[in-house]
Amino acid sequence: MKIYRTVILLVEAACLFVDCSVHTPGVQGPATICVLKGQSVDLRCSPTYPISSKTWYTVHLKNSSYVLYDFAGDRTLSRYNVSEENNFTLTISDLSWNDDNYYCCGNIIEIPGRCWFYSMKLIVADLQVKVLPTTEGQTVTLMCSTSCPLTEKPAAYIWYKNREFLYEDWSPWYQELVSSEEAVRYSCAIKGYEDLRAPEVSVDSVTETCFTVTYDGGRMCSYTQTPVDESCSITYPREVHVLRTPLSKDFVQLTCTPSCNLTDPQTAYRWYQFKVLYKYSEKKHLTVPAAAGDYSCAVKSHEDLRTAEVCGTDETCFTVNYGSSRICAVEGSSVNITAEFFQNHTPHFKFWYKIRSKGEIGEKLTGHADRLEYHHIMNVVRILTIKNLTKNDSAEYKFQLQPSRRWKTDVPGTMLVVTDLTVKITPCAVVTEGQAIRLTCSTRCPLTDDTSYIWYFNSRPLSLLEDQDRNKHLVLDPVSRQHVGSYSCAVKHIISPQKTLTVQEASMAVSNAIRLTVVLMIPIPPLFFYFWRRRTHTMGRCHFGSMMNASAL
Prior knowledge:
Blueprint: E1 6-7, E2 21-23, E3 27-30, E4 32-36, E5 41-45, E6 55-62, E7 65-70, E8 80-83, E9 89-92, E10 101-106, H1 112-117, E11 120-125, E12 127-133, E13 140-146, E14 157-161, E15 164-169, E16 186-190, E17 201-206, E18 210-215, H2 219-222, E19 232-237, E20 240-246, E21 251-258, E22 269-273, E23 276-278, E24 285-289, E25 294-299, E26 305-306, E27 310-311, E28 318-322, E29 326-330, E30 335-343, E31 351-355, E32 363-365, E33 372-377, E34 381-386, E35 395-400, E36 414-419, E37 422-426, E38 430-432, E39 437-442, E40 453-457, E41 460-461, E42 473-476, E43 485-491, E44 494-495, E45 499-504, H3 506-521, H4 526-543
């Protein structure tokens, strides 16, 4: 059976406080809350108890006993505030790793176990740029991810390149494939929390078997025994497989095999049985009973790259593997999502599910809608075809063999991101004769390297030189008045909206520069001049681009 790779994408949960609430006698709110480190959080207590008898606790299990900690007894915790006017809400500001705990409120000190049962789990997350392998030559892809799905859905993601703002978008997936040829550093942030930016990451090398990245601190460095505030360099495999070696009639040895030799002698591995983490071994080899079920593995700290499932013996096998872990497709086009399954008996129930948010059971796709088609190859490979894609089709898709089996929401399927096409002009759409500019056919996620782009000028196809033909970038160097007009791009039959390019004469640019110089000679209060200069800095750089070094593009 052909083995496919499975990558777990960290997709932020869409549930808000009101959507995830659980009704308990003590805590009012979600059973689990995930919040970024450095943020503030409000934990609300149920009005069941009178205020005079309410108390907030943290609770943990120690030696089979529940241990409570009373916040009211420690006045040194200035980051903690309890508001009696607002349902005894506990506010924790500037969250730190130490705040990661179980919380409960009420009058339940006599029964500590009750506090544990009705507790709310607060998880403090950090932001990290995940670097994931691709099948597109010697490139990788980037994902702005958190260590747990955020309870509050991010408004948008902001990307930075060499500490400069790059773009803002709703998708956590970086728009371009990245190679090691660019000596640049990437970072990301969540809109509204730009001061909580992820540590920078650079891609040092990408080969056919491995890729090496350098993190400027953060969670990834902690896996290498490096302090979180220090940088570290890590080599990852581009593929991982499980080798199966029979030891006897009853036992099989499984070997987690990366595509390259990992030099770190402390490299640990993650094993999964029935898609659930197997906590009893982090070794490369695992001996299991032949009839023990399906297994997969990953390199620890790189769990996003998980192997396809294998079984102790073919007679006991029950696995589902997907042809692609993630797909980026253009709005209006069609896409095929494939799932290959193996089972010793033909399953009676086979359904595709659409999951919009991590943790959901998913929407069962039934019937043959106008845009949905279902195909199969020899009753082993199932294909879901979605035609005329819309942004609403962006979701995770899973193939479930038997609905009676327990649904595992953390098991990855195929993530589909539907993108539109837009034309972006760098440095801007109003430039000066003689300047060098670049037009980009921009998407919200990286299309494959073999994607062909067609450029249009005033609604007519452009005839380009070989080095720019079918390229997503169109460079005009130097730009002249004959380039003034509207530009659009297309992938297959999908065409982007038009973008207008304005080119000023060089003499006009000089005149504007003289006017600007005269204005700057007029005495201006220092504070007003500072803000005015910040506002016009980008405009001046763009309009008077003939004075810039065009080769920087």
